[in-house]
């Protein structure tokens, strides 16, 4: 049983090496699609957060005034990236990656 697992791991490692060496390897394409999906998800979540934060005032006792108004979009963008890159995000990134890969398979 252990020998089968070792043989299977060796076969997977050899296949991964072959894919990495191939200029049109599926592994590189999958990584690119997944990265594009994560970036899309980060942008989508950032847009949601911008709408959520639009009603919040920056004045008051603990408000940052004009400085907070200026830097809030950057903070919200980082929130979006953190959500998208934490675990599986909200799931949009993986769905986008699957659609990209499916469309690419249908082309070629």
Write a compact overview of the structure shown:
The chain is an all-alpha fold.
Molecular structure report:
The chain has 108 residues and is mainly α. It has helices at 2-21, 26-53, 65-85, 92-107. It is rod-shaped and about 60 Å long. The chain has one domain (25-107). The chain has four helices and no strands.
Topology:
Blueprint: H1 2-21, H2 26-53, H3 65-85, H4 92-107
Helix pairs in contact: 2-3, 2-4
Rg from C-alpha positions? 21 Å
**Topology pattern, helix = H, strand = E:** HHHH
Total tally of structural domains = 1
N-end to C-end Cα span: 39 Å
Strand content: under 5%
Keywords summarizing the entry:
108 residues; mainly alpha; 0% strand
């Amino acid at each position: 049983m252990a020998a089968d697992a070792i043989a299977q791991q060796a076969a997977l490692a050899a296949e991964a090496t072959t894919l990495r060496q191939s200029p049109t390897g599926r592994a590189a394409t999958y990584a690119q699609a997944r990265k594009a999906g994560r970036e899309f998800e980060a942008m989508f979540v950032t847009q949601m957060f911008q709408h959520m934060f639009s009603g919040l005032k920056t004045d008051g006792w603990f408000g940052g005034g004009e400085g907070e108004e200026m830097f809030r979009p950057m903070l919200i963008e980082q929130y979006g990236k953190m959500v998208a890159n934490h675990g599986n995000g909200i799931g949009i990134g993986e769905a986008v990656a699957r659609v990209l890969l499916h469309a690419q398979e249908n082309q070629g």
